[in-house]
């Protein structure tokens, strides 16, 4: 039996992971599941999968979790340190599917225990790629990409010589507003930004898809994971989301990864790697699909892409600062304190400020320094954003 832990089990990726392992209960022993406020879901899954431990990120919800698990013998815990301890429990395969920079420390803890880390949490690589990779190597651990584009690249690159790779292309659906007039974007609401044309995902990554910040993070993720130069990675808008990525070789040949827009493919690939096993995803019928379309991303519509180039050129801890500013700006957009276009403006201004502080950006890649850069990015973003108003009880 393989010992499995799922960080972020109650989210979109976590639930798809559970869907796969629940189909084969004799193959997996579930060590730990973690979640947030969704205590009912967390407890139900922990009971159904016979997990040893369930952890909520929120200390204030510990009693609720204990109550939901009472009489089951399943341990309950809460808070950021408990998430790290859950990740450190003995496991062969750990899914990193917490959203945002909050996923970094638990994922890193799993790597330090030598686990295979299935990495959905792209923010870990954006904030601390070098740290994640060096710790994986030092502890004989492995990271497998779960982001669909990066899983696609990983699959297309299997058995290839990286020296013959000229470029990689990652595709983008274009998100909720790809066909909106650019002038209308300033009026876009959080509800409108939270619907995705092709993928069913958590709210935050869906908004990031509308703004292309998701693709910006993925450019950095691809650079870190596959050791590519920034100018070797291209973004192509592909509204059907069926080609996930392509690898272009020096001889002009391209290998494309094609598949349905269902994250259970990439999750299942990482779960079964290095083998392949049958997965419950749709089989594509190309005669019915009839055509695939492509367009270049418009830099005016999607300023996040230029922000990614800037971060890749600057390097150091600029990814951690950028991601933190982006997370804060998204909170402000969701709260209706700023408009849709203001998110990229805030992130740019925070990067301006960070670039004036080389001692911050060029500090060593330790977890403390990365978390310090994250805190600085949040604080600068809050300086830039309209203050939170309201009840004052938050
Ligand atoms: P989600 O919002 O649906 O779920 C997030 C999970 O993290 C939940 O279990 C939630 O309880 C937990 N969580 C939230 N805040 C937390 C915190 N502060 N501390 C600890 N746990 C916290 O997110 P998702 O869409 O499943 O995305 C998860 C990760 O996978 C993200 O990094 C995302 O970029 C990546 N990803 C998602 C998809 C997708 O299809 N959803 C595709 C590619 C990559
Ligand atoms: Mg993706």
TrEMBL record:
Gene3D superfamilies noted in UniProt: 1.10.1740.10, NAD(P)-binding Rossmann-like Domain
Single biological process term from Gene Ontology: isopentenyl diphosphate biosynthetic process, methylerythritol 4-phosphate pathway involved in terpenoid biosynthetic process
Entry keywords, A to Z: Isomerase, Isoprene biosynthesis, Magnesium, Manganese, Metal-binding, NADP, Oxidoreductase
All residue ranges annotated as the 1-deoxy-D-xylulose 5-phosphate reductoisomerase C-terminal domain in the record: 143-226
Pathway info: Isoprenoid biosynthesis; isopentenyl diphosphate biosynthesis via DXP pathway; isopentenyl diphosphate from 1-deoxy-D-xylulose 5-phosphate: step 1/6
Boundaries of every 1-deoxy-D-xylulose 5-phosphate reductoisomerase N-terminal domain copy: 4-129
PANTHER family reported for this sequence: 1-DEOXY-D-XYLULOSE 5-PHOSPHATE REDUCTOISOMERASE, 1-DEOXY-D-XYLULOSE 5-PHOSPHATE REDUCTOISOMERASE, CHLOROPLASTIC
Descriptive protein name: 1-deoxy-D-xylulose 5-phosphate reductoisomerase
